[in-house]
Amino acid sequence: MTGKLQVHGHCNGLKTTLLFALMWGIIMLIWWATGGQRSTLSIYIVIGLATTFGSYWFSDKLAIASMRAREVSEQEAPALYRIVRELSAKAGKPMPRIYIAPTMSPNAFATGRNERHAAVCCTQGILQMLNEREIRGVLGHELMHVYNHDILTSAIASAMATVITYLGYSLMYFGGSRDDRDGDSGGALGAVGVLLSMILAPIAASLIQMAISRTREYDADEDGSRLTGDPEALASALNKISYGTAANPMPQTAGTQSVAAMMIANPFSAEGLSKLFSTHPPTDQRIARLMQMAQEMRAQSVGMSGYAQTPQVRY
């Protein structure tokens, strides 16, 4: 195929700018809650600058390290290299590095600040659970996150969520200094600010990860399926991953939580209120959209050649 796949972008430059602005706003709010003193302002400015630069420049390294993944050679993972090389060439884009994470919970994600500094990572669990056709569907989805420039946005949001959460926890130790400057009433106000920040900081972190709109997953499903020409393969993969993560959820650590929003499916059990903060759309809705897309592609194929070229997957 000589033509290159059209990359949409989906307004991620604006999303990135808004996320940076929100990060700075929350950091300054926490600075105010801890006393708002000039002597501590520089500390929070450094935190903000370090987070801004770090989440941009080291996004791929941070995500890979969080999952304890290692880069694999073509000799170690020939099928992965063959699929990624084929799909990258079809899109006319550079081939990303390939990693495998040592967890049996089935999942995959892509990371990196741009196409030339990108990586895709599969867990050992997903490689054992899916067949090669389904792996191809998953990798098409992840590559389109890279080519649509979703990765920088999600990496920034993940880094911000982690920093804001830890800043909220730090208030337990460094909060309330406002009373040194403003007396008893200021001390009471500072204590209220500390309490609110301790409660709201983790919530804000979750909301920031939700700021990576659920539509980005729908977009990557659609674009990735157009890249592979096989939406049913991704639908089958999502179905298996859904059951696999429910049976074998990923351990919730600071590292895995920071990468969760990047993964193709929610790696944790989502029940009750936790569903409200999910960064992923419901799997059954994603599968339904993919199956509808497969029907439309078959109809187009029948119209052009008189028979459907995309085989069905049963699951």
UniProtKB/TrEMBL annotation:
Where Zn(2+) is bound, by residue? H141, H145, E217
GO terms assigned for molecular function: metallopeptidase activity
Localization recorded for this chain is: Cell membrane
Concerning InterPro entries, the annotation shows: HtpX_protease (IPR050083), Pept_M48_protease_HtpX (IPR022919), Peptidase_M48 (IPR001915)
The alphabetized UniProt keywords are: Cell membrane, Hydrolase, Membrane, Metal-binding, Metalloprotease, Protease, Transmembrane, Transmembrane helix, Zinc
A Pfam family annotated for this UniProt entry = Peptidase_M48
List, separated by semicolons, the cofactors it needs. Zn(2+)
Transmembrane parts of this sequence? 12-33, 39-58, 151-174, 186-208
Q: Which residues form the Peptidase M48 domain?
A: 75-293
Q: Which NCBIfam families match?
A: PRK03072.1
Family assignment from sequence similarity: Belongs to the peptidase M48B family.
> Can you name this protein?
Protease HtpX homolog
Whichever gene encodes this chain, its name is: htpX
